[in-house]
Design goal:
alpha+beta; Elongation Factor Tu (Ef-tu), domain 3; Threonyl-tRNA Synthetase, Chain A, domain 2; six-stranded antiparallel beta barrel; four-stranded antiparallel beta sheet
């Protein structure tokens, strides 16, 4: 649905390669009060409409530090913890709140399926999105707003989900990625210093530049439930949905 800028911290952001890691061990690279940079991390930072992960760290002494916020700061991913005490060079065991992460993976993957159908059936580009645990939204520009049509699109998406289609995640060099205009439906202008782009591809159906966490197969989504459709002004439409 969106792409995440991937520069020097790509090797640090291990979730880009494997979204299913729930716990890992690493080293504290830097500390500023309650903000901690890890040598590598599977925690997802708040970005592109997808909320950050939660979880906790345990240091060599067995002390627990709850991760309350994660964000990209100054080329690094910073983990805000609930108290001070971590030191540079410490070894830590890290645990991601898996129930929360997996629900966000289901919703984000569902959003890609929905945007794929909206684009293919209507030729409409998604103009914005917001992912949340209970209710997420997709914004798009459309002149004729046929509500029955969107209920039908959701049903088509649910039938597609039953097909057990693989979701691939991989990195492309900028020059190679730019040859495929379909990867950049939301943003056409890319920073000059962006040399690698992460792609999420639903095999044979849809692919987009995206840095979010995703499932390995669409059948893990479950079922998409359309909650509400709204007019947000001239030609501006909004769809609220969840997964069950």
């Amino acid at each position: 649905m969106f792409f995440l800028l991937i520069k020097m911290w790509m090797d640090e952001a291990k979730y880009l390669n494997d979204c299913y890691v729930r716990e890992f061990e690493t080293e504290v690279l830097d500390v500023n009060d309650k903000f901690v940079v890890l040598k590598e991390t599977f925690f997802y930072p708040n970005s592109g409409g997808q909320p950050h992960d939660l979880g906790y760290l345990i240091n060599e002494n067995g002390d627990r530090f709850d991760v309350v916020f994660v964000a990209k700061l100054d080329e690094h991913i910073s983990h805000e913890v609930d108290k001070t005490g971590l030191k540079k060079g410490m070894k830590v065991k890290c645990f991601i709140d898996w129930d929360r992460r997996y629900q966000l993976m289901r919703i984000h993957s569902a959003m890609h399926v929905l945007s794929g159908f909206i684009f293919q059936e209507l030729g409409v580009i998604v103009g914005g999105n917001n992912i949340d645990l209970d209710k997420s939204r997709v914004d798009f520009i459309l002149e004729n707003f046929d509500r029955d049509l969107f209920y039908n699109l959701v049903e088509k998406a649910n039938e597609f989900i039953k097909n057990s289609v693989e979701i691939k995640k991989y990195i492309l060099l900028r020059d190679e990625a730019m040859k495929d205009e379909s990867l950049f439906r939301l943003t056409k202008d890319l920073p000059e210093n962006l040399d690698r782009i992460r792609v999420v591809e639903i095999d044979g159906f849809d692919k987009q530049a995206c840095g979010g966490t995703h499932l390995n197969n669409v059948d893990e989504i479950g079922r998409i439930e359309l909650l509400k459709l709204e007019n947000k002004g001239k030609n501006n439409r909004r769809m609220y949905f969840t997964v069950i």
